[in-house]
Every structure is written in structure tokens, then in C-alpha cells.
Write a structure and sequence with these properties.
- By secondary structure, the protein is mainly alpha-helical.
- The chain is built from 12 helices and 2 strands, in the order E-H-H-H-H-H-H-H-H-E-H-H-H-H.
- It has a two-stranded parallel sheet.
- It starts with 11 loop residues before the first strand and ends with a helix.
């Protein structure tokens, strides 16, 4: 029956997946949409996950021997702490909200740019509207996107980690960092003590996490969508009679997004642990006993953490991170895809 229809009689469906953007849309408009939709999706996702992220940072940056037995103990101590209880779990959220908007918009924007660049450089890749790129290419695009975003993200995460560090664990509670622990105070302190390059302390850890994590994030999302789409085609062959491909159902987007969040956080979690400890070590006990005045490098911090706590120390806080990343990532992709489809 589909063979008897004219193209003008067939509804044109386009997949709102980031890999299937219409090539005829003005590049400036596409960039603006990536930034606007990514910013909104990232901000909402951050509101959902931030208390869990605070617990994760406190678990990662605690001294040796640990003062928390696990996520639940950290959560309980945070609620009972004199510094604000539940409010303390949202301390410093202004910087991460801004960071989430920057990170997510940058990820989606640079992901699409990377695809366009690779299509231009490699003519053998699919070029038509609505054509899927090979999964390996999408993984490479995700890695490029993450590496680019890491440069913007490191300064924001440095401020976030310093604000999330519990007051009770500060070496000097009478220091300015304790008396005025707002974003502006932290930014001024970093610049005064370490200069402009001090904001990129922990950049190597962020680069490793974002490059590999973003490849896993986009790769998992696209891979799960492809798998679900193929399964859907087996039961409804009429889908393939349309020009282009229909947008994935919302529950497919949520499932793929949740899978992406788990993959992103689990694979390169040790790099994030080392980064968090580097960015907060001057606030508490240094990783290197007797050398509080010396800032550790990425590799020195990792080696010292491995010597003290082993593999368990590198993955401390991983469980709560993976648990909060699934719903947060699902919401981010669903909002972004929904807005992208709505704007057509």
C-alpha cells in the first residue's frame, strides 16, 4: 500500500535525536536552540541531582580515616549539622546551576558541530537528512564534545566543590573561607592565592572524565535508541514507510537517557574522585601528610588515594552518583528532545 502513495501524501516525520537534525535549518538558529534548550534541560536536571552531588563530593573529599561510613551516614550527618541541615545540601547551587546550563548546552552544541565537521572531512559518512551516523563516529563526537566542555567546566566545578565541602571539616574555621563561603568569596580567594590558572586546578581529571564520560553518555543514549527503534520496527513495519523516521516515544527517550547517565558516571568515576580531592584538599587535611603547603598533582593525588584506600576509595560515592544520574539524565534528554521537536 505504501508503494501507491505519493510523497506529498505521506507525512514527513523527523527524529529529534541529536544525530538527526535537518541540514536545511540555518546554522545560527540551530546553535541558538542547542544553547537555549540545553541550558534549560541542564538547569532542571541539576535541581534534581544537586543534594546527591553534595553527598558525593563530601564522600570523595573526606580525609583519611573517613568520617562517613557511607552515603546514608553522610546524609544523616549533613541534616544534623549546625551549618544548615537540609539547606547545606543545596549550598553553592548558584554556581552549579550556571555550570549545568553551560555544560549541557556546550555538550549538545559541540556534539552537533563535531558531527558536521566529521561529515565534511569524511565524505563516505552518511550525509542526507535523517541519516544515522555509525555508532563509532557518534562515540568520537561525544568525546570531542566532552573535551571541549571540560575547559568551561573545570572553573565552575572548582568553586562548586569548595562550597560543598562541609564547614566542620575546615582546617581553620576562623579563616575567610569559613566566614564568607559564598561564590564571590571563593572566586576572589582562588584568584588571590593562585591567579587565573588556579581556576583550572583539576583540569586533567575533568578532561579525562568529560572526554570518556561524554562518549559514553551520547554513545549509550544513541545506542539504546537504535536498539529500541529496531525492536519497534519488528512489531510495526509501517513505521518504515514514512519518509525519514518517527520520533522515539517519550519512554524510549527516558530509558535511553537513564542508561546514558549511568554509563557517564560509572566508567570514569575515579578521575572525578581525584579531581574533587584536588580541588578541596587545601580546605582540609592534605592527601600528603606533613605537606599541607604542597598542592598535589593529579597523579600524585591518585597514587596517594590508592595507597590509603585502594579501589574502594576511588569509587567512594559512586553508588549515590549513579543513582541520581539516571533520573537526572533521563529528564535532560527528554526535555531537550521535547523542546527540539516542539520548535519545528
Amino acid at each position: 500500500m505504501a508503494d501507491t502513495l505519493n510523497k506529498s501524501d505521506v507525512p514527513i516525520w523527523t527524529n529529534p535525536s541529536p544525530t538527526e537534525r535537518p541540514l536545511t535549518e540555518d546554522q545560527g538558529i540551530k546553535a541558538a536552540k542547542d544553547i537555549a534548550f540545553g541550558s534549560l534541560a541542564g538547569s532542571i536536571g541539576k535541581l534534581i541531582e544537586y543534594p546527591f552531588d553534595t553527598i558525593k563530593v563530601r564522600l570523595q573529599s573526606q580525609p583519611h580515616p573517613p568520617i562517613y561510613t557511607g552515603p546514608l551516614d553522610c546524609f544523616q550527618q549533613s541534616l544534623l549539622a549546625p551549618e544548615g541541615g537540609l539547606r547545606s545540601l543545596y549550598r553553592g547551587i548558584s554556581a552549579p546551576l550556571f555550570g549545568a546550563a553551560i555544560e549541557t548546552s556546550s555538550l549538545f552544541f559541540s556534539y552537533r558541530i563535531a558531527q558536521s565537521a566529521l561529515q565534511a572531512l569524511i565524505p563516505s559518512l552518511p550525509q542526507g537528512k535523517g541519516e544515522n551516523l555509525p555508532l563509532g563516529v557518534l562515540l568520537a563526537c561525544g568525546a570531542i564534545s566532552g573535551a571541549t566542555t571540560s575547559l568551561l567546566l573545570t572553573p565552575i566545578e572548582l568553586v562548586k566543590c569548595k562550597l560543598q565541602y562541609p564547614v566542620a571539616n575546615l582546617r581553620d574555621r576562623d579563616s575567610p573561607s569559613h566566614k564568607g563561603r559564598g561564590p564571590v568569596n571563593v572566586i576572589a580567594s582562588v584568584f588571590r592565592n593562585h591567579g587565573i590558572l588556579g581556576f583550572w586546578r583539576g583540569q586533567l581529571g575533568t578532561l579525562i572524565r568529560e572526554t570518556g564520560g561524554s562518549a559514553a553518555w551520547f554513545g549509550s543514549y544513541e545506542g539504546v535508541l537504535i536498539m529500541l527503534r529496531d525492536q519497534r520496527l519488528r512489531y510495526d513495519e509501517k513505521i518504515d514507510t514514512f519518509i525519514g523516521k518517527p520520533p522515539p516515544p517519550i519512554h524510549h527517550q527516558l530509558l535511553a537517557g537513564a542508561s546514558a547517565g549511568v554509563a557517564y558516571n560509572f566508567v570514569f568515576f575515579p578521575a572525578d574522585t581525584i579531581k574533587s580531592r584536588m580541588q578541596t584538599e587545601e580546605l582540609g587535611t592534605s592527601l600528603v601528610p606533613g605537606k599541607n603547603q604542597v598542592q598535589s598533582t593529579f597523579w600524585r593525588s591518585g597514587a596517594e588515594l590508592w595507597r590509603q584506600q585502594g579501589l574502594r576509595g576511588l569509587y567512594r560515592g559512586c553508588g549515590i552518583t549513579v543513582a541520581r544520574s539516571a533520573p537526572s539524565s533521563a529528564v535532560i534528554f527528554a526535555i531537550y528532545e521535547g523542546l527540539s521537536g516542539w520548535s519545528r
